[in-house]
């Protein structure tokens, strides 16, 4: 299971966390960042999708990322979990069709560019914050 907080929320309970959180220093002029806070179990994740640019930071646990540039749509089924994709589709991909990959650990930050396809897989129970820049 994964629990996400997006957009405007009653931050009474979470206020102390967000008061201590220092987001990445980069901004897009004329915009305000939006934050997403998540707590997720091992094996959970988000299937391939894209949106505007941003950062993702792991506070606790490990999160594996799979990324494709905007002009290279990944082969996936929208109702398939990332874990199922990793077990069934990923091994059949020729090396040239595999995504860029990395695993974020606590304190590490990943920048994801505008409209890049990405999927995530939480390798452990994970706590993370994403900063959307657009």
From TrEMBL:
Residue ranges crossing the lipid bilayer per the database entry: none
Annotated Gene3D superfamilies: Cupin
Signal peptide: none
PANTHER family recorded: ARGININE DEMETHYLASE AND LYSYL-HYDROXYLASE JMJD, JMJC DOMAIN-CONTAINING PROTEIN 8
Chain ranges of the JmjC domain: 1-134
Organism: Spheniscus mendiculus
Highest taxon of the lineage: Eukaryota
GO terms, molecular function: cis-regulatory region sequence-specific DNA binding
Protein name: JmjC domain-containing protein 8
Assigned GO CC terms: nucleus
């Amino acid at each position: 299971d994964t629990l996400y907080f997006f957009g405007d929320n009653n931050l009474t309970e979470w206020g102390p966390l967000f008061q201590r959180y220092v987001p990445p220093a980069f901004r897009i002029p004329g915009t305000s960042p939006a934050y997403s806070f998540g707590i997720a179990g091992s094996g959970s994740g988000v299937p391939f999708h894209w949106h505007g640019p941003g950062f993702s930071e792991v506070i606790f646990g490990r999160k594996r990322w799979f990324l494709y540039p905007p002009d290279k749509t990944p082969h996936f089924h929208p109702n398939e979990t990332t874990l199922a994709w990793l077990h069934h589709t990923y091994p059949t991909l020729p090396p040239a069709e595999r995504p860029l990959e990395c695993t974020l650990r606590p304190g590490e930050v990943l920048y994801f560019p505008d409209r890049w396809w990405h999927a995530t897989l939480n390798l452990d129970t994970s706590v993370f914050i994403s900063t959307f820049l657009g």
